[in-house]
Every structure is written in C-alpha cells, then in structure tokens.
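User: Predict the structure for this protein chain, please.
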Amino acid sequence: MHIRLEKFNHVKRQKRYHVLRVTQTLFGDWCLEREWGQIDGNGGHKERRYLSGLFEAQTEVERLKALDLEKGYAVIPVQMGLL
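Assistant: Here is the predicted structure, written as structure tokens:
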C-alpha cells in the first residue's frame, strides 16, 4: 500500500507532501513508513513503525490519511515507473 497526499495553499505559501507506505519485512512484521515535508524543500522527515499485523497497519494508515484530509491535503494518484 502506498498513498501520497499533497497540500497547496498559495495564500500561506504552503507546498507540503505526506507519503504513507505499508510494507512487510523479511521477518514477517509489518512496517508503516511515513515521509513528510515541504515540496521542493531540503530534507524532510521520515519515520518507521513496526506493527504486529496488516490490519493494524492499514487501520493506522486510514487514521493518518483522515487527519491529513481534514488539514486540507488531497490524495495524489501514485504513478508507477516503467519496468
């Protein structure tokens, strides 16, 4: 699962992004990876959380997505690269 959200507010000069990914580790645990920051900005923030199950990871992604949507973010379709 991979979700990208972006927020543009020209009045406040905000260009922000938030990426949520759920992946499975080699040991069978589930990892929620978050990345957020300013678009065209230096750096950004990254965080990883290891969860016990897929359902728990999906629930947390939906919770974070709902919070971002309330803050004015919009879901951006993720484009897959060529193989």
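Strands lie at 2-9, 14-24, 30-38, 45-51, 74-76.
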